[in-house]
Design a protein that fits this description.
There is one protein chain. By secondary structure, the protein is of the alpha/beta class. It folds into 3 domains: about 5-50, no CATH class; about 60-145 and about 280-295, Response regulator (Rossmann fold, 3-Layer(aba) Sandwich), CATH 3.40.50.2300; about 150-275, Rossmann fold (3-Layer(aba) Sandwich), CATH 3.40.50. It has 12 helices and 10 strands. The chain has helices at about 5-10, 15-25, 30-45, 50-60, 75-90, 105-115, 125-135, 150-165, 185-195, 210-220, 230-245, 280-290; strands at about 65-70, 95-100, 120, 140, 170-175, 205, 225-230, 255, 275, 305-310. The protein is elongated and about 80 Å long.
């Protein structure tokens, strides 16, 4: 049964008008003892304020919208946003995940209908999106790290492969119908590392999580190549194809993934991959939300540290 402010008033033995004002942030108008009675009664009844009512009173909801690029993510994203959801809930805010679209009007409809307290994005806002957010007066903040984080991922992968003695390097994109806001920076980093090491320019190709495509990729790569992979899914796809073909891993092909997924640690051989502190990413997102609401300083993306998880695939 939904607990209403009227229930709180009866439990506290106070008028509905008094309870309503205290619950709506006007406790300073009443004696401390009165306000405490209201809050104590609300807590005992597990009272949750009505979002619809708040929207009518203030023109704002308690929603914080996170715009997620319509690209591929592993299970790490769920782990991150589970934490963000919990942390924002402690502050009376509700996190809503929304896939980004290429239509600015879609964002405008969301803002008009949900009246969020703030909007976060995992990639930079476009100029049109910035204009819409400004017109609607909605605080916003993008939690992306420009190209720096993704460039660093590509460098770590390529530098490890070079250090292991591979004279030919490749970069494997994830081929998918969805957007890829991250792959280009990683590819550019691999190209830079090859140039700095005096190696030929890397072969760049894309494949899906598909056995036939992985086999065709091996035909092009030839033995003796090290591959920096977009994520662990691509690395494992190539690893399975190499095993079926009888290639020795890491002698014939070296593979470095990204994301340190649980599956990467149970492959044969165990995948070399890149990991990062999920808790740090979650705290960055929470801090970004609070900064957008004017309740903290803008967080520094540099707090996210990448580290190579040494396996046996490279």
């Amino acid at each position: 049964m939904t607990v209403t402010s009227a229930d709180v008033a009866r439990h506290a033995g106070l008028s509905r008008a008094t309870v309503s004002q205290v619950l709506n942030g006007h406790a300073h108008r009443f004696a401390v003892e009165t306000a405490e009675r209201v809050l104590k009664a609300a807590k005992e009844l597990d009272y949750e304020p009505s979002t619809a009512g708040r929207m009518l009173r203030t023109g704002l909801s308690d929603f914080v919208i996170a715009l997620v690029p319509n690209t591929t993510f592993g299970g790490n994203l769920q782990d991150i946003f589970d934490t963000v959801t919990e942390q924002l809930a402690k502050r009376g805010l509700t996190l809503v995940l929304r896939l980004s679209t290429q239509s600015p009007s879609s964002l405008d409809r969301i803002l008009a209908g949900m009246k969020p307290r703030a909007v976060l994005s995992l990639q930079p806002f476009t100029d049109q999106e910035k204009s819409i957010l400004a017109e609607r007066g909605v605080p916003s903040f993008d939690t992306s790290t420009s190209g720096n984080l993704n460039y660093s991922i590509g460098r770590i992968q390529a530098e490890h492969l070079v250090a292991q003695g591979y004279q030919r390097i490749a970069f494997a994109h994830l081929r998918d119908n969805r957007l890829d806001p991250y792959g280009d920076d990683r590819e550019n980093a691999v190209k830079d590392v090859c140039r700095e090491a005096g190696l030929p320019a890397p072969m760049v190709f894309g494949l899906g999580v598909d056995a036939a495509e992985a086999g065709a990729a091996l035909d092009l790569l030839k033995p003796g190549v090290g591959v920096a992979c977009y994520n662990d899914d691509i690395a494992i796809t190539l690893l399975n194809a190499a095993n079926r073909r009888g290639w020795s891993v890491p002698a014939d092909i070296g593979l470095v993934g990204m994301d340190n997924t649980p599956l990467s640690q149970v492959t044969n051989p165990r995948l070399t991959t890149i990991g990062y502190d999920l808790a740090a990413v979650a705290q960055l997102s929470v801090a970004a939300a609070l900064a957008a609401l004017g309740e903290g300083e803008v967080p520094a993306a540099a707090d996210i540290e990448l580290h190579l998880i040494a396996g046996d695939s490279a």
